[in-house]
């Protein structure tokens, strides 16, 4: 079956969305858009002092994502598949978590004026995993500023993602329980995901593999 032309992989910090997006881009030999967290000069300051650095951190990410979407729109429209590890619509999710009321009002003004023609994906893959799994994966990848992420922040973020995607209906949605599978190093797990991708054309779908008993 024909693959979706624009695939977005989403989920909370540590769930593996960027790694999966890279593998999908390799599989489909496609253009890849990744969140440039390492390009944000305010991010480390945010994890050290969230209240003080939240607004510039959020605005930098917003403008970065808007630029990437514009570049994607102006790129090769005949590219068979494009893969991204961020959904433009979720940007406000982080803003609601980190900004106070006045900051959020300012952010909303910028957001509404810059995201008028956002591209809608043909498929969104939403990866889920428990908080302890996320913390383990964050620790394993060893990014310095991420060591300051605590379980309470991750829980609020994970809950926000759950609420966001509970109401999401702009594109076909595949919700994947990523806690018991390895979509990067296990070929059978990855092949199972590809088979689901080929079948999803509308609505909401679930991939919830159970661990194999030894």
Automatic annotation (TrEMBL):
Domain Deoxynucleoside kinase: 7-197
CDD domains, sorted: dNK (cd01673)
One GO cellular component term noted in the UniProt record for this chain: cytoplasm
Keywords: ATP-binding, Kinase, Nucleotide-binding, Transferase
GO molecular function annotation: ATP binding; deoxynucleoside kinase activity
Positions bound to ATP: 11-19, 137-141
InterPro entries linked: DCK/DGK, Deoxyribonucleoside_kinase, DNK_dom, P-loop_NTPase
Active site annotation, chain numbering: 85 (proton acceptor)
SUPFAM superfamilies attached to this UniProt entry: P-loop containing nucleoside triphosphate hydrolases (SSF52540)
Protein name, entry field: Deoxynucleoside kinase
